Every structure is written in C-alpha cells, then in structure tokens.
Amino acid sequence: MSHTHKDHDHTCLVTVPIFNHLELDELTKITELIKSKSFDKGELIFSYGEKSDTLYIVRSGQIKMYYLSENAKEHILRMLFPGDFIGELSIFLDEKNNAYAEAITPVEVCMIKKEDISKLMEIYPKIGLKIIGELTQRLKKSEKQASWIATEQVEKRILLYMLELYDSNEPLKPIELPMTKKDLASFLGTTPETLSRKLAYLEDLGMIHQLSNKQIKIVKMDLLLEFLNQM
Q1: Which intervals hold domain HTH crp-type (predicted)?
Q2: Does the pLDDT of residue 7 top 50, yes or no?
Q3: What DSSP state is assigned to residue 180?
Q4: Which domains does the chain have, with CATH numbers?
Q5: Residue 56, CA distances (Å) to 36, 49, 53 in order
C-alpha cells in the first residue's frame, strides 16, 4: 500500500542528475518542497489518461512504463531506475499521462508539484537545462527501441540491446539484464517464447552464454558483430 511522508534529508536530491549539481544550501531549500511516497510491488504510480500536477523522481526501486494495445497486450516503453523521473508530460506540456507507471519492486519516489518545479527552474536555470538533457537522452533511447522493433529479425533486436548494455571497459563482465525475460520480450516487441528460443539459438552459435535469467555473457564479440553485419 502506498504511503506518503515528508522527506527530511537530501537523498532524493543528491542522487538524481537534475539536482546533484546544486550546492548544499540550495538543496536544503528544495528539500522543503519535496514529499516522499512509497509503493508496493505491483502498485500503479499513475495510470494512462490521468492528469497530474506532479513530477515523480525515483529514489529507490524499479518502475516500468507501459501502454496496453487494443487486445490488452502490454507493451513496455521503458524501465526507470533510481535517479530517473516521470510525469513531465503533465507538467511541461499540460497533457494527460501517455502510459501506466507500475512498481515492479518496492519503490520510493520523491514528488515535486508543478508550481514548485516551475519556480525552481526560474531560480536555478540549470535545473531546466538538466531536465531537457535527460529528456533528450530519453528520446534517443525511444528512437533506438522503435528502430529495433521495426527490424524484422528478433535476433538483431536482442543483439543490439545487449550491445547497449555491454561495457567495453570490462569485456569479461557479464551483461546484467535490468528486467525479467518477460518484460524484455515486451520491450523488444516479441513474445517470451520467441525470446527464449532466439537466445538459445544465439547460444548454440557460440556468441553468448546465458549464466542465469539475469546474466548473459558475450563469448565471441567478433562473431556477434559479423552476424549483425550480415543481417
């Protein structure tokens, strides 16, 4: 069950990109404008079509944003982690929410009202610039996701997504999937059954090795890239 309380420290602010550039005295002033709210796993932070006057910043936990197709099939738009924010459509464009936001773990969010965030951007213009920067990065990711789904081969979508998560500075480190296989299938525009089958196929080809449901290791990067170039 959701629970609201007043936030008495700076952790909502210092951990998020849109505020962590501010000085301590500035953060102290902003803390007075923030309330913190907890959600249990499976609870909705907000629903599609709702009008909101609040910016939500993820303090802890994980949230998925999705919409439902006409046949009630869930399509994941993106996953949110600590430091990410949602609710900007209602604040900046005065539009209704275009998706559902659901807690997929216990979640705590920090909430700032529309009038307060507007005042803050007047006093501290960098906050507005940071928000624009975050939204720009989000748009790039959405465009990538759309291009992956437009690609016919599911294998290519999977490999492009893994390359997004791959850390070239630590090539031997396994890739950590930030969501369940079921949610990943939705994110990539396929079914869980097809995803499992294609992952097994890529493993049989010797490109990857599935260490667990959450960890995948790229075994042969050169083979993976060659496979991608042929598609």
Answers
A1: 152-222
A2: no
A3: -
A4: 3-140 (2.60.120.10), 151-229 (1.10.10.10)
A5: 9, 16, 10
